[in-house]
Amino acid sequence: MKKWQLFGTTVVGASLLLGACGGGNSGSGEEGGEVKGDGSSTVGPIIEKLNEKFAKDNSDVTVSNGTSGTGGGFEKFIAGNTDFSNASRPIKDEEKKKLDDKGIKYDEFKIAQDGVTIAVNKENDFVDELTKEQLKDIYSGEAKTWEDVNSEWPDKEIKAFSPDQSHGTYDFFSEEIMDKGDIKAEKNADTNVIVQSVEKNNEGIGYFGYNFYTQNKDKLKEVKIKDEDDNLTEPTKKTIQDGSYALSRPLYIYTNEKKLKDNKGFQDFMKFIIEDKGKSAESAGFVALPDKDYKDQESKLNDIIGKDSDKKEE
């Protein structure tokens, strides 16, 4: 039987707890087990979908997952408070060093593909496409009106919205668009608030994971992005999966290697994630990886839990 429990006082800080059905073992060898995760609010809906399925056949494994953001998730992972950390960007060098200093070996698994989607208000009838340079002008604050972006557009003040620094999406956008520079926009930890802000502001623009756009596409207008070769790209399942969309990116789970080896329930959960082959990601509004990638992830997992390895995957 599935058990649901909600922790935290906000949506972003909430943690979803499911008692999953079937039999994992904890490190002590007893039946059952507990698996704790935290991290990206982008990846969170995928984990939720996976938990719903996992719960049907694994009643004695309890999986909990928080959504404090990629950065917040890594903080808990480094502190040893979680078994896995969800991320919408690769782990940073400073995070690697902190794990190294604590003697924590970790492994990186790709579980799905996402495309950071740029959207404007539904009533915007002039912005259909943007270059990365124009996006940089908007989010650096250099372009204060739409006319500053394109002389043929209206002289109306831009209202730019962004995830805050706790999000891997913020880091991804900063690196891909801003050359790691600061983002000047109204920031919020809750992506749903960003979506609502763009919806309510005629001059609004925002960015977020593909699933947030697909769930709200009747309320927003998607903007196509030109890549470095001046090719116009738009987020679709095909372009996101093959990486041809200018702002496509993988989504990750990072696992504590020792905890993974010691906890049979954790192993079962990770096997389930990989064997799902992105079906849960698709149902959550994201894009599955190519089949070959899941086979590679499965081989990596088998190497970790099948034999001792001192090698840290990055």
Automatic annotation (TrEMBL):
Q: Where in the cell is it found?
A: Cell membrane
Q: Which GO terms describe its cellular component?
A: plasma membrane
What positions belong to coiled-coil segments?
A: none
Per the record, the similarity remark reads: Belongs to the PstS family.
Database matches in SUPFAM superfamilies: Periplasmic binding protein-like II
Write out the function statement from the record. Involved in the system for phosphate transport across the cytoplasmic membrane. Part of the ABC transporter complex PstSACB involved in phosphate import.
PANTHER family attached to this UniProt entry: PERIPLASMIC PHOSPHATE BINDING COMPONENT OF PHOSPHATE ABC TRANSPORTER, PHOSPHATE-BINDING PROTEIN PSTS
**What range(s) does the PBP domain occupy?**
26-276
Q: How does it assemble?
A: The complex is composed of two ATP-binding proteins (PstB), two transmembrane proteins (PstC and PstA) and a solute-binding protein (PstS).
Say which species the protein is native to.
Staphylococcus nepalensis
- Identify the main location: membrane
Keywords of the record: Cell membrane, Lipoprotein, Membrane, Palmitate, Phosphate transport, Signal, Transport
Residues of the region (Disordered) are 24-44
**A GO BP term, please?**
phosphate ion transport
The organism's taxonomy opens as: Bacteria, Bacillati, Bacillota, Bacilli, Bacillales
Query: A GO molecular-function term, please?
Result: phosphate ion binding
Q: How does it sit in the membrane?
A: Lipid-anchor
Q: What is this protein called?
A: Phosphate-binding protein
Gene designation: pstS
